[in-house]
Design brief:
It holds the Pfam family NAD_Gly3P_dh_C. This protein is α/β, with parallel strands linked by helices and 330 residues long. The chain folds into two domains: 173 residues, NAD(P)-binding Rossmann-like Domain (Rossmann fold, 3-Layer(aba) Sandwich), CATH 3.40.50.720; 143 residues, N-(1-d-carboxylethyl)-l-norvaline Dehydrogenase, domain 2 (Orthogonal Bundle), CATH 1.10.1040. 51% of the residues lie in helices and 14% in strands. The protein has an eight-stranded mixed β-sheet with strand order 5-2-1-6-7-8-9-10, with helices on both faces. The chain has a two-stranded antiparallel ribbon with strand order 3-4. Helix 8 runs parallel beside helix 10 and helix 8 packs across helix 14. The chain binds NADPH dihydro-nicotinamide-adenine-dinucleotide phosphate (NDP) and 1,3-dihydroxyacetonephosphate. 1,3-dihydroxyacetonephosphate (13P) binds next to helix 8, helix 10 and helix 11.
Length: 330
């Protein structure tokens, strides 16, 4: 199977980086920004100055605003925020021409607690789905710095074809047959990163952060298992790999959101200054909804959700986390 024509939905940082990477890998790439003004700006400047400054767009990259034309591809990569995924599927369903759907967003639907692959199965059933996740800051990947990601799907032929279509230079996709584990890992690490940022912002130290990452890994593993994923997936790129990247760097929007909160900045002020961090707030709510619905114990994710809903509770929530009864590690 050859996947030559690749379209990317969403021209934020990650969508633009993925389009650049696919083009460097030799594919015929179309980037679909949702707004016509952004399309004009990209065509004019040949750079995504708003979301990925300093990385030129190759003249061969097609910028397309017509969704039907963009969906006429071998593979369509979805790289808009997770909360807009259902809307995308609904708009795309009548126009779908048989492409594979690669979900590159990291999140869970807030209203329902649904994973994005579950939404795709309901709302875009015609599309075979692959999840792309793992430790990958868009700015580094787009600059050609070494980056390894996971591509996970039930169909081995499709996963392999996508690996071949996207791999180039130092961008290395690794295959997986556990899309649920990979998807859960990518969504929940955003919430754990907020927790790590809070702890650092509060000055609680690096020991505390390491403990949070480790206990967070246990939490996300419980959720992945409950959803039908595999524990070993959490030891791979999408699990521990992305936790290491995101939870230890203030380049992460989620970690920096937590850091600012920990430093006592009002949430409204943080969100007003950087719109992009808002996705972490909805993901925290979504993870809490899902965990409660299926009865998975996620104390760190729960605390983050409550802190974001009521930032004044930050000290009480941290105290409560530290006061949890001691038990054997599992
Ligand atoms: N940035 C990164 O390093 C990585 C991000 N991801 C994931 O990729 C996804 C996209 O993130 P990223 O590219 O960073 O986002 P950015 O913050 O860079 O850009 C936001 C994007 O969301 C779009 N958007 C805003 N409102 C809507 C809406 N109502 N409907 C549809 N799209 C909308 C914006 O379009 P507009 O400009 O028109 O408002 C823009 O394309 C997220 O799920 C993120 O977790 C995954 C790996 C790495
Ligand atoms: O997913 C990412 C890196 O893998 C990007 O993380 P942030 O959204 O926290 O910046």
């Amino acid at each position: 199977m050859s996947l030559q024509r690749i379209s990317v939905i969403g021209a934020g940082a990650w969508g633009t980086a993925l389009a650049i990477l696919a083009q460097r890998a030799g594919r015929d790439v179309t980037l679909w920004p949702r707004r016509a003004e952004q399309a004009d700006a990209l065509r004019g400047a040949r750079e995504n100055a708003a979301y990925l400054p300093g990385v030129p767009l190759d003249p061969g990259l097609h910028i397309e605003t017509d969704l039907a034309r963009a969906l006429d591809a071998d593979a369509v990569l979805y790289a808009q925020p997770a909360q807009h995924f259902r809307g995308f599927c609904r708009n795309a369903a009548p126009l779908w021409k048989g492409a594979a759907l690669v979900i590159a967003a990291k999140g869970i639907e807030c209203e329902t607690g649904a994973l994005l692959n579950e939404i795709a199965a309901e709302a875009l059933a015609a599309a075979p789905v692959v999840i792309l996740s793992g430790p990958s800051f868009a700015a580094e990947a787009a600059r050609g710095l070494p980056t390894a990601v996971a591509l996970a799907g039930d169909r081995a032929d499709l996963v392999e074809a996508l690996m071949a279509a996207l791999a180039h230079g130092a961008f290395r996709p690794y295959g997986s047959d556990d899309p649920i584990g990979v998807e859960v890992a990518g969504a929940v690490k955003n919430v754990l990163a907020i927790a790590c940022g809070i702890v650092l912002g509060k000055g609680l130290g690096e020991n505390a952060r390491a403990a949070l990452i480790t206990r967070g890994l246990a939490e996300v593993t419980r959720l992945a298992l409950a959803k039908g994923g595999r524990a070993e997936t959490l030891m791979g790129l999408a699990g521990i790999g992305d936790l290491i990247l995101t939870c230890t760097s203030l380049k992460s929007r989620n970690t920096s959101l937590g850091f600012d909160l920990g430093q006592g900045k009002p949430l409204a002020e943080i969100l007003a200054a950087r719109r992009s961090v808002a996705e972490g707030v909805t993901t925290a709510a979504a993870v809490a909804t899902l965990a409660a619905r299926i009865g998975v114990e996620m104390p760190i994710a729960g605390a983050v959700h409550r802190i974001l809903a009521e930032p004044a509770a930050i000290d009480d929530e941290i105290r409560a986390l530290l006061a949890r009864p001691l038990k054997r590690e599992s």
